[in-house]
Structure formats: C-alpha cells, structure tokens
Design goal:
Elements (H helix, E strand, L loop, with lengths): L7 H10 L29 H12 L9 E2 L12 H7 L2 H4 L11 H18 L3 E2 L6 H16 L3 E5 L4 H11 L5 E5 L1 E2 L2 E2 L1 H7 L4 E7 L11 H9 L3 E5 L11 H4 L3 E5 L15 E5 L10 E7 L5 E8 L19 H38 L4 E3 L9 E6 L3 H10 L2 E2 L2 E2 L10 E5 L6 H13 L1
Helix pairs in contact: 3-11, 5-11, 6-7, 11-13
Length: 445
C-alpha cells in the first residue's frame, strides 16, 4: 500500500475530534527543554546526484580487496568461498523471517538444525542454540546461563579475554545483584593463582578465552580442575577456526562454549557481519537462551523440523523466560553453516594449520627487526601475537597504511600498561610477499 499523507482538512478534523487545536498539544506532558527541535535537514537529492554522492563517500573507505590486513582483535579477514554467498543470497533465505509456522518453513528450520549440529561437532558439546547477536552477547548470555544453573551470583572472567566482551558483560549485568570479578593475567596467560584466590562457593562460572585477546593459547585443564573443586561452571570463548587444530571445549571438559562466528564465512566490513554461537552440555540445555530447532516426525512418519525450545519472554511467562534474545542472527549463522559444510572437517583443520604457520612466520620475521621483541616470552598462539616495540605504533601504522597495509592494533587503548605493544593478526589470506613487505616497512620506519 502506498503512503498517502493526510490533507490539511483531515488533520483539522482529527484534532477537533480529540479536542485539541494543534498536534503539539499531544506532547504537552514532555517539558519543552526535553523536546527535539525541528531537524534542519538539507533538501532531497535526485537519484542521479544521490548515487554519485554515495559513490564518492564509498571511495574514501579502505577495502580489504585493496589492502592487506594484519589486524584482528575479534574480527578476522578470512577467505570466503563463493559457495557461501551463492546460498546465503538466495531469496528463500535472505527474505525469510523467524519460522513461526514450521509447516511453511521447513527449509529455514532444517538449515538452522544443520547449523546447530555443526556447532556441536566443532565445539564438542551436546546442544547448540540457533545463534545469538555476536561474541560479546554470547559471553553475557553464558554468564546468565551459569547464574540460572547454579543459583550463584558471582562471575569470574579473565582480564585476558576480549575487553569489549567484558564491557558488554558488565552492561548486561548492570543493575542486578550479580558480581563480576576479573582474574588478572601474567605474561599473556590468565593467572591460575589469582583465580584460585578469587574463586569460592559463591562462584557461578569461570569465563576464559582461548586463544585469548593476546592470541595466547591458554592452559585450560588446570582451570577445569579448579572450577570443579568449587562447583563452578567453566565457560570458554573460542575462535571457531582454531578448533580445526586445537582440542574442543568438550574435550577439555568445559560446560559452556561460545564465541564470535564472524570468521565462519562472514565479511569484515565496518566491524564485521557477526553472529554469536553458544553450545552447552546436555544437562544445561533447559537453561540455554534463544531458540533450539529440533528434528521430529509428522503424523505420517515423515521427517520434519520444529522450534523445540523458545525461551524468550514473548513465548512463555516472563518470570520463566531465560533470555530476552529476540530474532537470532539466522542469515549470518547460515553463512557459518555453509562455510563449515563446504570446508569439511579436513578443510577446517588445514585452514587452522595455515593460520598457525603463517602467523608463526610473521612473528619470527618481525621479532628479528631491531626495535621489536616478543611481548610475552614463550607465547604459543594461533593467528594473533603481541609484539613489544621501541617505535611509535601510530607512526608505524601510518607508514603501513600509505603502502596499502592495515597494521596492528595498539594495545594501549585497552591495556594502558602495554603502551609499547601491538597486536598482529595473520590469517590464511596473507601471502609470504605481503608479510615480507610489511616487515620491510617496519624496518625502514
């Protein structure tokens, strides 16, 4: 239906019927000082001028098609097979909404079921939900899940986990009686001694990230034993690509596995096209947030898919809801599903090993440059590593950018005590010549 504005006559008739003379009287309860004045917007443009204006603005962006990216910190530049976009851009998926009517949404429901199955296989857990918004909301939901499951009110989270995830966690829990306590880190690792000091019988969960924000692969078995000693759950944030080569959270003995799904077939643009994944052991399945799609049979014995659990407050009594998570990031999760299925088990393993090898080559190349040294001695990492330098990191990044290279992240913004450290990321997309070129620029800078 086209939008047809009201005529002046119709406006007057409506105002008269409710007993007022001007529409502004409808807002009289709002103080004038709190009202937004008229917006001073420019006049509209013709389509031709609008397109040319937006194209000129877009040219100011730095596209990863033209730049070699050595920055990660949560969003990663991975190769995306053409198969992913071919499937995701099909109108049956890209225009579909929440599958409330299973009889009309079997394709969408099966895709979500396949996604859940692949996430469980990847993480070694029993049950996955249909996805969340991003890695940070997944951390917050993991914490809330632990509180519901244990009836305890204290969350321990590693200071070596993503700083922005921890910010979102605190925002989620603001105004509640849940306490968030950070575990310190030392030499790039989460401190087991500090965790032991802060852990108690009131702790709902210990939340760790491995590889952590510095890229370090944590020693997790000790934390698993420690958390069990106090009856706390162990929640692990993981890079999904790294699980092609590292032990899965399930093998380690974690209770909850979660993380950012962007590396699985989603683009990096403007901070990333994200989705959060979250999976749990079977005994926690009734506490999981969001939706779960299940497989069943209809009255004729035919296989079908339905929304098995819907734990948000819109579907069940508010006091029984486990989350207010609404529409999940289904299309982005579908990209992750197609990506995992397309690569297969051996493909993901080879991809992980390529990340290991290329990042190790870059690390060895950089620390040999005068003025650069390891930020952490003996660091074992996946595709990110921290380096200490006597050079100005902002100056280095300007030099690199001028040569069409997106340089490392200065850690001073998140860790003031690491003002002389930078975080590099190297994925399978980076070539030896690109790594060598970056190193040569760092040498000259």
């Amino acid at each position: 239906m086209n939008y047809i504005p009201l005529t002046e006559k119709e406006n007057k008739e409506m105002l008269k019927s409710i007993g007022i003379k001007d529409a502004s009287e409808l807002f009289s309860v709002i103080p004038s000082s709190s009202r937004i004045p008229a917006l001073k917007l420019p006049k509209g443009m013709s389509e031709q001028r609008l397109v040319s204006t937006l194209e000129a603005m877009a040219k100011k962006n730095a596209s990863l098609k033209d730049y070699a990216c050595f920055r990660g910190a949560g969003i990663y530049d991975h190769f995306i097979p053409a198969l992913v976009e071919e499937i995701v851009n099909r109108s049956e998926f890209s225009t579909a909404y929440t599958p409330y009517q299973p009889e009309a949404s079997q394709g969408t429901l099966q895709a979500i079921f396949e996604y859940q199955s692949l996430i469980c296989e990847l993480t070694g857990m029993d049950v996955s939900n249909a996805s969340l918004y991003d890695g940070s909301s997944a951390m917050a939901e993991a914490a809330l899940l632990a509180v519901r499951a244990t009836s305890r009110k204290k969350i321990l989270v590693s200071s070596a986990s993503h700083p922005e995830y921890r910010q979102v966690l605190r925002t989620y829990l603001q105004g509640t009686d849940i306490e968030v306590v950070e575990i310190s880190s030392k030499n790039g690792f989460t401190s087991l001694d500090d965790a032991r000091h802060k852990l108690g019988n009131d702790t709902a969960a210990v939340i760790l990230q491995s590889p952590n924000f510095f890229g370090t692969i944590e020693e997790l078995s000790s934390f698993r034993a420690l958390s069990r000693e106090y009856g706390a759950l162990l929640a692990l944030s993981v890079n999904p690509i790294s699980l092609g080569a590292l032990k899965s959270p399930g093998e380690i003995g974690a209770d909850i596995a979660f993380g950012e799904g962007q590396p699985l077939g989603n683009h990096t643009g403007a901070g990333g096209v994200t989705f959060g994944f979250l999976s749990v052991k079977k005994e926690l399945s009734w506490k999981i947030p969001g939706r779960i799609v299940g497989q069943t049979v209809d009255s004729n014995g035919r296989r079908g898919f339905v929304l098995t659990l819907q734990s948000r407050e819109q579907h069940i009594r508010r006091e029984r809801a486990t989350s207010n998570i609404c529409t999940n990031a289904a299309l982005n999760a579908l990209a992750g599903c197609v990506y995992l299925a397309g690569w297969g088990k051996n493909g993901i393993k080879n991809l992980a090993l390529a990340n290991f090898a290329k990042s190790r080559y870059a690390y060895e190349r950089i620390i040999r440059i005068p003025g650069f040294s390891p930020a952490f001695e003996g660091q074992q990492f996946f595709n990110e590593f921290a380096v200490k330098t006597t050079k100005d990191i902002s100056h280095l990044n300007k030099k690199l950018f001028a040569e069409k290279i997106i340089g490392p992240l200065a850690l001073s913004g998140f860790y003031p005590e690491m003002a002389d450290c930078a975080l590099f990321c190297v994925t399978e997309n980076r070539t030896k010549s690109e790594i060598d070129k970056m190193a040569e620029i760092l040498e000259r800078a």
